[in-house]
């Protein structure tokens, strides 16, 4: 006695093989031929200084001769002039601001 089986039974679809001519792109890098992977980050220019001119040196305060002169001549008040007349000079390029 043969088993009638399920009348509406459809065989399961075959496992998805996709298009036989279709090859999925490899997941690894380099799928786009025109795309170059970015090079590892290299320090091109290490802007360590705060100089607006060369960006490499450091601006340091220097008192001016006039400031020292004012500090000596106008002693108590001259100190204000001394600190007010400081100039920022770059240690790399000598830029003064
Ligand atoms: Zn500089």
Q: What would you note in describing this structure?
A:
- There is one protein chain.
- By secondary structure, the protein is α+β, with helices and mostly antiparallel strands.
- It has a domain at 48-97.
- The protein has two helices and two strands; from the N terminus they run βααβ.
- The chain has a two-stranded antiparallel ribbon with strand order 1-2.
- The mean pLDDT is 77.
- Zinc ion is lined by residues 51, 53-54, 57, 90, 92-93, 95.
Short description:
With 97 residues, this protein is of the alpha+beta class. The chain has a domain at 48-97.
Total count of strands:
2
Content-based structural category? alpha+beta
Number of helices: 2
Name the hetero compounds present: zinc ion
Radius of gyration equals: 39 Å
Q: What order do the helices and strands follow?
A: EHHE
For the largest sheet, list the strands in their spatial order: 1-2
Sheet bearing the most strands, described?
A: 2 strands, antiparallel
Write down the overall mean pLDDT: 77
Helix content class: 10-25%
Which outline best applies?
rod-shaped
Q: Which blocks of ≥5 consecutive residues have pLDDT under 50?
A: none
Q: Ends: how far apart?
A: 106 Å
Approximate strand percentage: 5-15%
Q: Topology of this protein?
A:
Blueprint: E1 59-62, H1 65-73, H2 75-84, E2 87-90
Antiparallel strand pairs: 1-2
Helix pairs in contact: 1-2
The protein binds zinc ion (ZN).
Zinc ion binds next to loops.
Organism: Adineta steineri
Subcellular location: Cytoplasm, Perinuclear region; Lysosome membrane
Subunit structure: Interacts with BRI3BP. Interacts with MGAT1 and IFITM3.
């Amino acid at each position: 006695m043969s088993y009638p089986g399920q009348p509406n039974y459809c065989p399961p679809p075959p496992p998805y093989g996709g298009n036989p001519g279709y090859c999925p792109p490899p997941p690894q890098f380099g799928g786009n031929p025109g795309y170059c992977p970015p090079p590892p980050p290299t320090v091109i220019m290490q802007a360590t200084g705060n100089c607006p001119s060369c960006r490499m040196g450091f601006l340091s305060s220097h008192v001016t001769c006039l400031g020292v002169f004012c500090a000596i001549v106008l002693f108590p008040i001259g100190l204000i002039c001394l600190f007010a007349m400081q100039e920022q000079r770059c240690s790399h390029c000598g830029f003064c601001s």
